[in-house]
Amino acid sequence: MARGFHIGPTILLIVIETVVIGCARLPETTRVLHDDDRVVTRLETDFNAPERTYSNKTELSVEQLTRLLRGYTVRPRSRVPLQAFIDNTPPRKLFRESELDALVPPLREALQQVGFDERIRFEVFSPGRNPRYWRDVTGGWIKVRHHFFHLVVDYFHVEQPVRKTDAYDRYYPSPWTPERAYTVNFEPERQYVTDPLLDEYAVDLDLFTASTPP
User: Fold this and answer.
1) From CA 62, how far away is CA 11, in angstroms rounded?
2) Does 181 reside within a domain?
3) d(CA 2, CA 15)
């Protein structure tokens, strides 16, 4: 009985500590910079970033940022391991031109304001199949570390309810779309390199800006 009494609290403390740590590492919004019918940009904490991987403010012109985002392509990642080797689905441009026109100005502002321990969350909206209830969403997050421009995609032209409360409408339920996994690439490939500290692909801004007029 005594042994069981001592083991129980120990296990309970481990479980509680794990839950607390896990919850503490979830991103939290620190500031909403832009929010309208087309674009949302906000700053959020980056708890999962390793030490010494602070974010940097970045000065890119509208033309440079537009060209940078235009170079990204994306393809949904298969949940079947072997499918990744036989999937011939061609990649698609991450952003439409109309989306770039809407996203670039507020994103440029966010890149100039981001804190050292933050990253930028973005979402671009277009009308869905039934614009009254649905909208098309492309979104993810961006972080710049030194001269490495990191971009992760969570949604690529998926449909979500216009209002989050629509997902809980008892008469017309619209389930919220979970985040998905995507393979992201960039052209030209020589500018898409591995960040040695994060061991993740990113655009080398030194190479990019050297080939791009200001």
Assistant:
1) 54
2) yes
3) 21
In a domain, 103, yes or no: yes
Provide the residue type at 41 as one letter: T
On whether the CB atoms of residues 106 and 34 are closer than 8 A, the answer is yes
Q: Using an 8 Å Cβ cutoff, are 105 and 82 in contact?
A: no
Number of domains present in the structure of the chain:
1
The reply to whether 8 falls in a domain is: no
What is the rounded distance in angstroms from the CA atom of residue 165 to the CA atom of residue 132? 14
Task: Please check whether residue 157 lies inside any domain of the structure.
Answer: yes
- Distance between CA 142 and CA 45 in Å, rounded? 12
Q: Give residue-wise pLDDT tens across range 163-211.
A: 755 544 544 444 456 678 899 999 999 999 999 988 999 999 999 999 8
pTM, entire model: 0.79
Parallel, antiparallel or unpaired: strands 72-76 and 92-93: antiparallel
